[in-house]
Amino acid sequence: MNKKNIGVVITDGVGFRNFILSDFISEAKKEFNSIVIFSCLPISAYESFQLDCKIIELEVFTEKFPTWFFRKTKEVAHLQLHKKGNFGIEDNLNANRSRSNNPRGLATKFIFGFTNMFHSEKWIQRYNTFQQLTFKSHTLTQAYEKLLVENNIDLLFFTHQRPPYIAPLIYAAEKLKLKTSAFIFSWDNLASKGRMAGNFDYYLVWSELMQSELLHFYRSIKAENIHIVGTPQFEPYVLERYQSTKEEFAQKFNIDSTKPTVFFSCGDVSTSPNDPVYIEAIAKGIVENKFIQAVNLLVRTSPAEEPARFKSLADKYPFIIWNYPDWFQARSNHQENWSQRIPSVNDVKNLRALLAYTDISVNMLSTMSLDNMLFQKPVINTVFGNGENGLKNDQRFFNYAHIKKVIDGNALWIAKNENELIEAINGYLQQPNLRLQEQNDMIQLQIGKPLLGTSANIVKVLSNII
Hints:
By secondary structure, the chain is α/β, with parallel strands linked by helices. It has helices at 13-19, 24-31, 65-82, 87-95, 103-115, 121-133, 139-150, 167-175, 189-192, 208-217, 246-253, 275-287, 311-316, 345-357, 368-374, 401-408, 418-430, 436-446, 454-465; strands at residues 5-10, 34-39, 54-57, 155-158, 179-183, 202-205, 226-228, 261-265, 296-300, 321-323, 327-329, 341-343, 360-363, 379-382, 413-415. Strands 3-2-1-4-5-6-7 form a seven-stranded parallel beta sheet, sandwiched between helices. Strands 10-9-8-13-14-15 form a six-stranded parallel beta sheet, with helices on both faces. Strands 11-12 form a two-stranded antiparallel sheet. Helix 3 (65-82) runs antiparallel to helix 6. The longest helix is centred in the N-terminal third of the chain and has 18 residues, at 65-82. It is globular and about 65 Å long.
């Protein structure tokens, strides 16, 4: 077999977790002659790992106005095309509107007016072409081309399809006529988010559901260029090196093992601003003895932000156990600073232990619902905000396509107020397996392959592409 050379583009901290902390690199070494990591993270992030492959730190890309203009036009046109009958897309479209009268605000208003009329797939492809042409004489593009040639790359694999800062690298590969593939990053990316950063030759998706979404939202993509591979996002949960015992978990987090543990996982302030309200509702329930038995409350904050907004809660309820994710900020001079937060091996171990040894999961419609279902733990989604009670309206997410599938599948308990949250926790304390079959059905729908061997499966697909 004539082994080829693969370039792997790590875009952010989550991609780092998915493809560096999983078995992907070790499996790729079996199939490829060489592996070159093109990293949008600092090279220092890899220092403690024995990857035994070349790592190239990419220069931070700063997007100028012409590129921004055509990218924005492409994204808004995509949302305009698919808004009918899709609340998530429509909600995202409205979030992109601007009331500002600065140059970008005025340009955004023009873009909305223009794309209201011209938003077909053909027009979107035109906008993408114009976007890519803005890189034609860019010095960064020339540097990327040189790197791809010098390293004899045969296939460039993007571990995330959306970040705008990967667009010049896509353009460099297009100029050199290199094959490209992209992994669809998250369960909600297609059904509610904007356009991809560019076009790719091949697409790797989680499941048949995601394949059908890709074909629906990107009519120019052919089914034979889509491969169902599962996702490495969850693979560490079945790898022995991340496992720990229940005794180790209890000792590390100072857990009273005689009580069941309610595990609340936070979103960041932009996606889940009501989290402090939900945490306090559970804490008050503990103080006021509203649960049918005594429980622990353990809260994991979002790795995408510092936990400062929860300080008053930590002071007010000292019995709450806090897990602050062990992610570090690799750099701050970046257009998407949150993307530069990188997880540690220790944090993956901690998260796996939380999932394995807590008893009831609570979150605001987060992908963490899937994580907990994988460990057959009952899930409650807290959505108190209705647009009229002073809280951020998180109930609007009920109409998002990917959320509707979970709710319609009866895989979790929805709590729309404090009393319903108390009722849900008590209900699961009495019947922890109440929705177990529905949860297993949801996992089969959302994650198309077994967790064990995910990386090997992805590598095999990539190898066959060349």
